[in-house]
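Step 1: inspect the first sequence and its tokens.
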Amino acid sequence: MLLAEPDPATAAQFMAAADHMGIRTDWCRDGAETLLAVGAEVPTVLILAAHTDNVDAARVVATIRSRSDVPILVGAAKSGDERIVREVLAAGASAVVARPYDITTIAPFAGITTLSPAEDSVVTAGPIRVNPSGYETRVGNREVQLTQRELELLVYLIKRRGHVASQSEISLAVWGHSAETNTVAVHVKRLREKLGSDAQHGQFIRTIRGAGYRLAPSLCA
């Protein structure tokens, strides 16, 4: 994929999330650089900030669309970009997405689902068994109903094999971008309540104060 984004922090955050999913992303800082990059090699998907320097977003879209049908996603803020949104859609943009970007929204345009093939297989930790593709979670003989975010969070913690995951790492892995600390905490709390605990392992998800979360070490032995 190709990301045209003037803000280095926003670009770095998105590229880290994409890399976690195994997606290679090249970065351009302005509209002129983007046109040169697309001219050299057409990307699978172009993510273009609504505000670009040197060449504005609508002109970038129109120029690329005249010679390629590559999906062009324009990242806009929730408010204040209405005029630009109208212009880029009229110029041929494929869709408008929220900025900062959510990799789980953008990945399908590149033919990639939220869960990679490696993550699609059944994962286990002690009595916990998760089948991501079937959205099925069991603790022993008990079936547990999880939301998609809760399921992805649980799979991520299982794959960490007892290593502590920070709030930032969880945000990028599950949400594809930096989420509010409270968002992660609320999802961990709900997941912890649904999984429960048992006599052998105690509480399945542990909070490591000031560091993050991990599964009980005995689950990963």
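Step 2: inspect the second sequence and its tokens, then contrast the two.
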Amino acid sequence: MLIFISEMIGTMLLILLGDGVVANVTLNKSGMKGGGSVQITFAWGLAVLLPAFIFGQASGASFNPALTLALAAEGTVAWSVVPNYIAGQLIGAFLGAVLVYVLFKGQFDATEEAATKLGVFSTGPSVPNTGLNLLSEAVGTFVLVFAIKGIANVPNLASGVDKLLVFGIIVSVGMSLGGLTGYAINPARDLGPRIAHALLPIKGKGDSNWGYSWIPVVGPVIGALAAVLLYNAIPW
């Protein structure tokens, strides 16, 4: 139960802050409209950092089904608790997205572009190409998980510094690869808010782009599994 609650609240906070910054800089009548991609990228890193230091001791602060599945595949996480992790992550992501809509309802109502509204909730490619979009999500998640695993190689790491390193990883992936697909690198981060977008009564919201939705789910899982396989194959 602790794992479920921790992952649910942690992922809710992640999406509240992560989708929140996108709403903050893209929706009309927001006081920070036009803040740009640098603000979004740093804020997403912080959105991971904050719940990570709150719930790191309780659940390991995965907040990401791809990471959870990869850790289970290598034996770090027991398969018996994987459903608790993923259920918490998906529900938390949905709730976080609902909170963003409630808080920014006035700004959503003042924004006409359906694509901008969808972009608050879920990711999408700058150049649609199924193969390359899938590869982008896989590679971005590979870097994320491989680097997270690599934190163990830092000698004499002070307690809590690992969370700051994860912040750096998220910002690095976003700034280097984020322009390709919006760097979901996390199935819950995209799927939970996309479901919220589909269900919420958002004025003029348009389509939820379900045709693309499998890419930010499958790509991260592939990348995460590849990362742990390579990491564990290296004779450290």
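Step 3: confirm your contrast with the notes below.
Residues 98 and 116 are 16 Å apart (CA to CA). Residues 2-26 form the longest helix (25 residues).
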